[in-house]
What we know:
Elements: H1 15-23, E1 28-30, H2 33-46, E2 53-57, E3 63-68, E4 71-76, H3 78-88, H4 92-106, H5 118-135, H6 139-149, H7 161-184, H8 211-216, H9 218-221, E5 232-238, E6 241-249, E7 253-257, E8 263-271, E9 279-283, E10 288-291, E11 296-298, E12 304-309
Parallel strand pairs: 2-4
Antiparallel strand pairs: 1-2, 3-4, 5-6, 5-12, 6-7, 7-8, 8-9, 9-10, 10-11, 11-12
Helix pairs in contact: 2-4, 2-5, 3-4, 3-6, 4-5, 4-6, 5-6, 5-7, 6-7
Amino acid sequence: MPTLVTRFLRHVALGLLVALSLAGTAGAQTAAPAATGIIQEITNVVGLQPRFELRATREVDNAAAVVYGGKRYLLYNPDFLAAVNRAGRTDWGGISILAHEMGHHLNGHTLRAGGSNPQDELEADEFSGFVLRKLGASLAQAQAALAAVADDEGSASHPGRTPRLAAIGTGWRRAETQIAASRQGPAPSAAPVALAPAARRAVGAPARVTQADEADDEDDASASSSTTPVRLVGQLTFRNHPDQPYYLTSGLNVVRVADDDTPVVVGHLTRTNSTDFPYVLVDGRQRRLFISARGDVYDPQGQCVATLHE
């Protein structure tokens, strides 16, 4: 976490120290129930499974995300976490450290060789701030651990205290914005999607025009005819499917063209009262994505997953 963390703990070849701790020698133990509960809370917030093993061990000085024998571990020294909580005068300190190390695993940092670097540390700090806001921490509580133990000056592997506190603040505010946007937007329906046989339509024709489309744009009201094309106003490009175009209609529907040239409505944009995230994209399974004023599309975990552009 801070610069006092042993530098080599993020390598796959961890050496005898970590090998002994993972093998269950003196000083190694299973994670305390409280720590295990914290990890479960964090993974629940980001919607992921904890695909790593949590170990409490006094063979490490503090905490580290490591890979050993092809398996991912999150190691922590319970005495160190207790000391951080005392120094920061809040139990959120230890939680933020575990969230930071989880951020290394979930951002894929431990899959790369080379050990710690400032960019990875800032990404893990930002993840920590995001998660702690989702769990209910104030910004000061999210920053307490780093404020107490981080060095003022940076190094080749870790930034200094000021940029790291700023990164936590960035993640915390992004979560705060998403929470605010969710509160201000209309509550999504709990009804499951109703499946019906798809009728063939010409490319560019709407799969279905909803009342929301008609309210958003009069042009889409005239599109109730299956032969009337929908006006396209933008395109969504998803990072995990860059070759599959998704189009935004003037009625704020998101449309994908199937392999047989049939247009399929896969989601709808809803306006919010947030200036940072003015739109929320809800798909047919009631999953939500948050669209920033710049057109960046974020999932509930705070990851940028797509871009909305002309």
